[in-house]
């Protein structure tokens, strides 16, 4: 086991809101399995190297640290049954949530992005890119995907914000938002079953699979809720961080202006380079395992620093430099294996579209404050910036 006397407080403090903490590189070099203590006072092991982090994502000996019943290790019948239900849900959803379908949404996403940029320009500079573009766009897209009326977009944004912020709202506020969204989605699913449209939810209402059967009513309601929470706040914050990272060094933005064809690889590099991906992925070790030469006992909580893994010198050439043409780019931002992010195709389409629209409409875009003045959003599970002030 790592040195129990040398316990590090986690998370670390980075020099700026868009740069990585120095501890990641130090730990990758000398202590890839580090003993840390979280703000909640929990002891855990922190993994910072690419191969080790990828293992925790793909190896079944590492499970989510929220077991649903079973024994203390979360490997009893209740946990295994929940895991089987989750995999069935993913199989049914994946049949409709294809990259081709997400790409077909691009014209609508482009239209939304232009409308939001129009509004931002009309209000004048400086503007907060996160509030004006990053926050509304993904929720509008999710609403379109689910067939939710445009008049309900603001309600969806309200619910999403309360789900993923662990300090700004009370437990009662979070619970109430969950109840409100669940009730809304129940009524919405019933309406889609009675009068299907051409949206994803209408398609899922009619999905029947020879092996897996049909999605149940609770599964359909959960699907709508999960798509909102996972698909809104994460992309909303990523849009702001993407702009901040690209504008932090003017030559990055100028290179994209000179060669817009780099947008797809630039988006992948932004996803790799992002140092603000949230607190870290929790996993519980179900049996004794060796990680980077260290024996880890069953029952240990492991934290995976994905942004550190994405900067591992063993995998990426010059990982501390943003290479907008980097290819291949096997970053782990969307996970890996059977638990990789279902919405990654949609997120990629949104990020590419937003970046292309910004380059076209606002070539003179720049940060309105110094990079050192950008502030991280506290208490947000997925990471983010409080504001991204820009001018043009």
Describe the model.
A hairpin with a 5-residue loop joins β2 and β3. The chain is built from 15 helices and 13 strands. α7 runs antiparallel to α11, α11 runs parallel beside α15 and α13 crosses α15 (344-361). The protein is of the alpha+beta class and 392 residues long. It has a 6-stranded mixed beta sheet, covered by helices on one side. A 3-stranded antiparallel beta sheet has the order 5-13-12. It has a two-stranded antiparallel sheet with strand order 6-7. The longest helix has 32 residues, at 217-248. It has helices at residues 22-30, 50-58, 77-94, 99-104, 106-123, 129-134, 136-146, 153-164, 171-194, 200-206, 217-248, 250-258, 263-273, 306-309, 344-361, and strands spanning 8-9, 33-37, 43-47, 62-64, 127-128, 208-209, 213-214, 281-285, 289-291, 294-296, 301-304, 366-367, 389-391. The protein starts with 7 loop residues before the first strand and ends with a strand. Helix content is 49%, strand content 10%. The model is unreliable at 67-74 (pLDDT under 50). The protein folds into 2 domains: 1-74 and 275-309, Uridine Diphospho-n-acetylenolpyruvylglucosamine Reductase, domain 2 (2-Layer Sandwich); 95-270 and 331-392, Orthogonal Bundle (Cytochrome p450). The radius of gyration is 21 Å and the shape is globular.
Return Rg in Å.
21 Å
Total individual domains? 2
> What is the H-and-E element order?
EHEEHEHHHEHHHHHEEHHHEEEEHHEE
Instruction: Give the helix/strand class.
Output: alpha+beta
Please state the overall shape, judged from the principal axes of the Cα atoms. Answer: globular
The major pleated sheet works out as:
6 strands, mixed
CATH H-level superfamily title of the largest domain: Cytochrome P450
* Number of extended strands: 13
CATH class of the largest domain: Mainly Alpha
Total DSSP helices = 15
User: Biggest sheet: strands side by side, in what order?
Assistant: 1-2-3-11-8-4
Cofactor: heme
Pfam family, one: p450
GO molecular function, one term: heme binding
Organism: Actinoplanes xinjiangensis
């Amino acid at each position: 086991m790592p040195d129990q006397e040398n316990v590090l407080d986690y998370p670390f403090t980075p020099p700026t809101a868009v740069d990585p903490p120095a501890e990641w590189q130090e730990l990758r070099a000398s202590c890839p399995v580090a003993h840390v203590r979280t703000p909640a006072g929990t002891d855990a092991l922190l993994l910072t190297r690419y191969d080790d982090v990828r293992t925790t994502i793909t190896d079944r000996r590492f499970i989510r640290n929220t077991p649903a019943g079973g024994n203390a290790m979360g490997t009893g019948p209740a946990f295994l049954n929940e895991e089987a239900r989750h995999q069935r849900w993913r199989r049914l959803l994946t049949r409709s949530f294809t990259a081709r379908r997400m790409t077909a949404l691009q014209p609508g996403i482009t239209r939304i992005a232009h409308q939001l940029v129009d509004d931002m320009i009309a209000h004048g500079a400086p503007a907060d890119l996160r509030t004006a573009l990053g926050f509304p766009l993904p929720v509008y897209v999710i609403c379109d995907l689910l067939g939710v009326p445009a008049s309900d977009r603001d309600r969806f944004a309200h619910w999403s914000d309360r789900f993923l912020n662990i300090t700004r709202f009370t437990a009662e506020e979070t619970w109430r938002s969950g109840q409100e969204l669940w009730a809304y989605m129940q009524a919405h699913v019933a309406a889609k079953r009675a009068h299907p449209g051409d949206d994803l939810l209408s398609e899922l209402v009619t999905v029947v699979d020879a092996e897996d059967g049909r999605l149940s009513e609770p599964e359909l309601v959960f699907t709508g809720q999960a798509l909102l929470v996972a698909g809104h706040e994460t992309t909303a914050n990523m849009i702001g961080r993407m702009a901040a990272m690209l504008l932090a060094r003017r030559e990055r933005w100028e290179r994209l202006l000179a060669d817009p064809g780099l947008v797809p690889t630039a988006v992948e590099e932004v996803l790799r380079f992002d140092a603000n991906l949230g607190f870290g992925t929790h996993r519980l070790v179900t049996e004794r395992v060796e990680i980077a030469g260290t024996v880890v006992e069953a029952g240990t909580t492991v934290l995976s620093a994905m942004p550190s893994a994405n900067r591992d010198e063993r995998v990426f050439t010059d990982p501390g430099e943003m290479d907008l043409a980097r290819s291949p780019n096997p970053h782990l931002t969307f996970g890996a294996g059977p638990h990789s992010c279902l919405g990654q195709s949609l997120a990629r389409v949104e990020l590419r579209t937003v970046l292309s629209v910004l380059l076209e409409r606002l070539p003179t875009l720049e940060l309105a404050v110094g990079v050192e003045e950008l502030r991280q959003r506290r208490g947000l599970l997925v990471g983010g910036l409080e504001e991204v002030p820009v001018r043009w």
